[in-house]
Input
Amino acid sequence: MKPFARLRWCVSRPTLRSIPSRLPPPRCTALHQRLRNYTTENTEDEMGKDKDKEKSNFQLKVPKGTKDWEGKDMVIRDKIFGAITEVFKRHGAVTIDTPVFELKEILSGKYGEDSKLIYDLADQGGELCSLRYDLTVPFARWLAMNSSVQSIKRYHIAKVYRRDQPAMTKGRMREFYQCDFDIAGVYDPMLPDAEIIRITCEIFEALGWHGRYTIKINHRKILDGIFQVCGVPTDKLRTISSAVDKLDKTPWEEVRREMTEEKGLDPEVADRIGEFVVQKGGRPLLDNLRQNQQLQSNESAKAGLADMDLLFTYLQSFSVLDRVSLDMSLARGLDYYTGVIYEVITEGSAPQTREGQKVQQAAKKESKSSKHDGEEDRSNDPSVGVGSVAAGGRYDNLVSMFSGKQQIPCVGISFGVDRIFSITKQRLNADASSIPIRTNEVDVYVMAFGGKGFDGLLPQRMEVAKRLWDAGIKAEFSWKVKPKLPAQFKAAEVNGVPFALILGEDELAAGKCKIKEMGLADGHPEKEGVMIEMADLETEVKERLGRQGGSPAGVANGVAGMSLEEARDAPKTS
Amino acid sequence: MKPFARLRWCVSRPTLRSIPSRLPPPRCTALHQRLRNYTTENTEDEMGKDKDKEKSNFQLKVPKGTKDWEGKDMVIRDKIFGAITEVFKRHGAVTIDTPVFELKEILSGKYGEDSKLIYDLADQGGELCSLRYDLTVPFARWLAMNSSVQSIKRYHIAKVYRRDQPAMTKGRMREFYQCDFDIAGVYDPMLPDAEIIRITCEIFEALGWHGRYTIKINHRKILDGIFQVCGVPTDKLRTISSAVDKLDKTPWEEVRREMTEEKGLDPEVADRIGEFVVQKGGRPLLDNLRQNQQLQSNESAKAGLADMDLLFTYLQSFSVLDRVSLDMSLARGLDYYTGVIYEVITEGSAPQTREGQKVQQAAKKESKSSKHDGEEDRSNDPSVGVGSVAAGGRYDNLVSMFSGKQQIPCVGISFGVDRIFSITKQRLNADASSIPIRTNEVDVYVMAFGGKGFDGLLPQRMEVAKRLWDAGIKAEFSWKVKPKLPAQFKAAEVNGVPFALILGEDELAAGKCKIKEMGLADGHPEKEGVMIEMADLETEVKERLGRQGGSPAGVANGVAGMSLEEARDAPKTS
Output
């Protein structure tokens, strides 16, 4: 554990702060101070001794770029995960859980210049490890390690880590969740690809987005074909592709300048590319491209266009073709894509500038009035703009980077849950018609009341709670021996508990208690509650929960109907 | 990002391998080679260039002490999490998600000598962070940061990290899950404590353990009182307590030797302790201790015994007193407990020696024959022995270690899911009567068949799958244009899909298709399937799923009825 504790070195420069190493204490006090906070084995004991000092110096915060999730945010996020998981399972997916850190060498060489954003674990002896940067590389590593698995549909919802400059409000965090769905295996062309698009639509519908999203789609082979036809030299294909990928945020003139001035492309070639990549559309654009003799004579473009034709046919069968926009400017940054690529965008991810907001509002109006009207081309939708909420594509060669020989074709998508969370929350805030969000799911609050000499009926409340729990009903009671009735009602109201069970001495003596639905309007015949037999407690409660639609499952599932409205003023936690 | 990239040092000793620092490349090649694998910013580019070499050197494995979760194991673990979460929610708990790493100083000084097991992140500039070691300290940190929260019931199911010597088969891993439930806030005495015990019992019942577990319970104040009464000096209280805590694994003679020889306790004092700590029992033992005049005259013991008396009364109301054994030798290692402490044990966690197995089997028989018979004292149950599957207690002072001033009393429990997983899996393996575990949850496999000229009916299969998905039904079909019927049946069988929907050209032309329940016995009237109207597809499927008990919810929930038996030979993934 301490193999190098006794090493000594001499230091040849004065400014050595924050270098992770071990120096003899008397030599350099400032450095030593710093090192005490770094090394583990040598200094823990010293830190223990300094406990009081530590306490006063305490920085009571979470690390930069991370956050605690709590209260309503946690509930919304859980419901989003639940909705997404349900769709994944509906399509027969299984889940795999990989470690949060991988051997450092597994991650290296996979992320290009972004590799500098990888978090490393300290070298405390043993293997060198890094926190995972995404869920795709661990999946490919797992496939390579489990060669008996030749095909799988897997989903993975987990945190990934990027040592990026954080921008919390924009959902750019150092610790954030990804929801990945991937299909590995050899199948007939475009069938898994089509199912991924269908799954994507099912997820956004389950989240209550009701068509307010567009799936931009393209194909690496079409792109490469276009570049070849336009005259891009083979060694410039990827770098020109990267330039094109910026067209969603950068005007063509700027991209053209990058191609020609920075990347040395012939301006005529650039202009030919420009004519292609501005094109967006549905079936008519695809048919148009397929009639282009230049493209048809290029092997790559021809294959890509045939794939896309088949995909469009399948998307039609799946009733999701109207969600898709063929976008010749979509290129995607990552090198490993080999076929279809896609990105999901929505007006909610547009920039918050005044200009942007106007566009957004227009988009909102347009998409509201035109939703679900079938085969329309959404390419001119002003909502088609900035950030993506999900993205992915086909990557047929990544697994072989690990296995060396074995090649398992894969296609997948990753949902950016933090962006989806922000947009969903905004929309819930804006929609007053939806059901209020509760932080807990308690269905019954068990109360007691009485006059003079009231002893709190604690054993009776405990007995009733026990009976409800035994019946699988979510129930609470006050942890006070003699609680006051208003305090008990308040506790139930604050958490939006739908039913109160009220125990009184006389009623109990007669084998009865009162059940009261909370929040009934004045004048409602059951406003003051209904007397029920103690013997029928569980049945009576279940029957009412079912009637109210407030059954455990009913409340717990579904994001579409949630609202932040009514319960907004309640404390964030009970 | 690279503030120290240009530093130089001279090295005064030859053996410098694996020291995390940066050296000028030409000086020391072996070291440089090592460093290339360590430092991030300086060497990523070089690593990129070496991609081919990297590939051949590749170690295709997960880091030591970690594992991938997949297949049936993943399904069982998910169901365990689901069962535990359901109980937590039934008691009104909310969940909080904290970052996987905390500022290093938050964790330091909290774990005594185990602090050396904390994983640190590398110093890549910025804050120094460590991976969380448990979920309790982050919860206390959160409470201290959110001073508006004066009371909360929270659960947290997440991974924690310990740089321990791993022993994977014994469930000792470097990355493992904890399931924590804690109640913070000021309440009347022992009410939250009693609910934690009740929750614990509900969880093990939900996991199908049917009373095959014992909750050992004690109280720090009773223990301290006993030690004081026996004559332990105040400054030796904690260290003597630690010695006593070993009694579950170590014979008294050994513990006595540690107390007297190692810790310098008067042998007479040790013997007096010995008389107390061997005692285990239920209500009779508690009443006995409460009649002990010596203990009643000690403030600490008196308070602890009064608490325990109240707790036993409440546990009686909650019908869980028979699960509890007051155990005077239970002390718990962590310093921060201040009141009730408890540990859950089961015969399944006993050692796998031949002796141990005999005891285990005897225990199994005994507990099977005697289960659910009420108020019996389980203290002499031979299953009471070695490892614990859950543990916790009251810690009233931990939050103030962070907040400095504010004190929020807390009580909680942590479930060791990996041990629970191993034991549950063993029991499923042993129980042939339970339902087979499936890795996915697909309910319907959509197939097609036909004679000469059969085109595969792909659009029709897609249309049917789409209709099922739209109705929320879990469905799959073959991703082949022209699949063979036996291959389609095999795909359904391998995954244990309960229903096949079989499309044929003639049937479709007549507006019909066939639904077939899989695995019916020969001679069953519906063995060959039943013809249904295409128009009623969704209703017919839902009606059958409901009848079969194979509705999505029915299959997905519940751990108690699962089995590994029938589907054991199926491939682990589809």
Summary: The radius of gyration of chain B is 30 Å. Residues 1-56, 351-386, 550-558, 563-574 of chain B have pLDDT under 50 and may be disordered. Chain B is about 40% helix and 15% strand.
